[in-house]
Design goal:
206 residues; mainly beta; 4-stranded antiparallel sheet; 3 helices; 9% helix; 42% strand; extended
Length: 206
């Protein structure tokens, strides 16, 4: 198991032979190793990585002490990766290689309060034939006497987006170590500048 932190730069496309491949550009690392956890002392094996610059005044004294103990400058993000044996004090983009499949976790774009058509892709009501102020409504949400209530989990209007999303089996198209960039085929959840967690797969689909 291996992992890396990064941010989403944006999307572009590159040529491979006579084909155009859409890719997402990720600024991945460098991630300093803040702490190494071992089974003998912590009960499990893991590596804690840091990413992103941060001002000291935005961190608490315990956070600064933890980073100082690991010999790491102030960082914005800390994440743990279980069963990751990192060699060296810094993890960079070259832990992944072109042609490798990985999984990426990010926070999807928040859309605020949304109706059922935007949130759940409902068809909506009729647009003519006597329809009046019913175009984007959900329709009936319950029954009359039996059961006399709205079922739990009913798809209705509410907060949309801003949730943790993991996409698996994403192909690494290219790794540009000199710029700390990883080009991943297809789209990745989250806005530009959003934090991404890149993880290796034990096997494709895992």
């Amino acid at each position: 198991m291996k992992g890396l932190l990064g941010t989403k730069v944006g999307m572009t496309q590159i040529w491979q032979g006579d084909k155009v491949i859409p890719v997402t550009v990720v600024l991945a690392g460098p991630c300093p190793v803040v702490q190494r956890k071992m089974t003998a002392t912590d009960g499990y094996d893991a590596v804690q990585l840091g990413f992103g610059e941060q001002k000291e005044r935005r961190l608490t004294r315990p956070e600064l002490g933890h980073l100082h103990k690991g010999g790491v400058p102030p960082v914005r993000y800390l994440r743990e990766f279980r069963d990751f044996q990192a060699s060296g004090s810094v993890v960079r983009a070259d832990i992944f290689a072109a042609g490798e499949y990985i999984k990426v976790t990010g926070t999807s774009k928040g859309h605020g309060t949304a109706g059922v058509m935007k949130r759940w892709h409902f068809k909506g009501g009729p647009a003519s034939h006597g329809s009046k102020k019913w175009h984007r409504r959900p329709g009936s949400i319950g029954q009359r006497k039996t059961p006399g209530r709205v079922y739990r989990g009913k798809r209705m209007a509410g907060r949309d987006g801003g949730s943790r999303v993991t996409v698996r089996n994403l192909l690494v198209v290219d790794v540009r170590l000199e710029d700390d960039l990883i080009l991943i085929k297809g789209g990745i959840p989250g806005p530009k500048g959003g934090l991404l967690v890149l993880s290796g797969l034990h096997e494709r689909g895992a």
